[in-house]
Amino acid sequence: MLSARDSATPLSTTALQEIARVENEIERIEQESIDRLTSPPENQVQQIELLGKLLLFDKELSVNRNEACAFCHMPEAGFAGPVSEINRTTGSYPGSVRTRFSERIPQTHSYAPLSPVLHYDDLKDDLVGGNFWDMRATGRRLGNPAAEQAEGPPTNPVEMGLADFSCAVYRASSRPYRTLFERVWGPQAFEVAWPANTAAVCDSPGPPAADDPLPVHLTPADRGRAAATFDQMAQSIASYEASHEVSPFSSKYDAVQAGKAQFTALEQQGYDVFRGKAKCNLCHRDGGPGEEPMFTDYTASNIGTPANPDLPYYAEGKPDDRGYVANRSGAAFVDFGVGGFLADGHPLSQPSAVDARWKPLAPQNRGHFKVPTLRNVDKRPSADFVKAYGHNGYFKSLKQIVHFYNTRDVLPRCSARGTGEGTACWPAPETTDNLNKSKVGNLQLSNEEEDALVAFLQTLTDGFHPAERK
């Protein structure tokens, strides 16, 4: 919950009430999972999945013990941002230090482990794979981008905020799932000689001082053991994300492909537009020879998304009450996505090293953001729940982003929050570097075809039961 020292947060009373609801749901799910420890599965794969779920819903792994990974990735929202009012307003989510916000919105955890390790595809002349909007969780070290993604938030100052990755291991060593962890990964997992001041270090928000980047002062052997355990924590989370509970392929679309349901006339029209006139499937691949229908080609693109002026990140250009500056560019900040990662790394959290051979690719990737899967793109707990779209949450509905794809280059320019914005005009792109002009901007769809396309996209929501729905 919000504390007195977080009084400067831009969150509204409505957002805080929703946050409280989400926190209560996280605690309920966590307790339900802890209860399963009395009779854990015998199968090792299921043990790892349970362990990953416990880690994902454990708020004790954040610096202020108030933010689980799941805070930005809840089931009812397709394992994406679960707070409607945040999605509608700030777009990005507060971290464990509630006055700190990142520059991007959460991506879905559903189907994330199916992304390939980041690599350069000579035939596509493009980078393919990885995780995060900027692909910086490459998967090159652990062999799984989702696992490397799980290692980013714990030490990101604007997310879970720990000063040292070993703090996550230290906190996990006293949690109820320790016995299961040691059963799965071995008794050596937490055999670390922790310095006397570890608790104090781990209670202090990151980032660490530049001259002391690993403030938990471990011996080389203990540092290596903690690093291995941190990797295993991340691999457990990725295993849970790959489970049927998170990535079930249970949408109406899947039922139709299996011959167990039929599209409505409007949904079929939308699918025809998706594959035909709009050519959405050129990037949001719906399957081909040897391909699962993942509705992404795992590349990145600049679709010309306008800057989102409501991001609190723009106001984080001055030291906070702990002396931390999240955004040294202030109001002039421009998010260059994949190009920024390749050129400079990520300023807040970089779980994977940049392959030096890819650095020359930075200019041609400026402004590129990963093509997201469209699975669960409209999963929401209620019809009035607002979801945000685009790397910065600029778009607030599927209809709006479809309209943008259709009319970006047709409608006139207007200022942000100007009259007619989003329907009759669009602000300029955040950056025009490497703007996608061949697949976005003038699809020549009618309003009815836009609506049909939205109807089709809604069939990609998991949890469809043929016997209960038409």
From TrEMBL:
GO terms for molecular function: cytochrome-c peroxidase activity; electron transfer activity; heme binding; metal ion binding. Signal peptide: none annotated. Residues 265-461 form the Cytochrome c domain. Its main location: other. It is found in: Cell envelope. Gene3D superfamilies: Cytochrome c-like domain. One of its GO terms (cellular component) is cell envelope. SUPFAM superfamilies: Cytochrome c. The keyword Ligase does not apply. The keyword Transmembrane does not apply. This is Cytochrome c peroxidase. It comes from Bradyrhizobium erythrophlei.
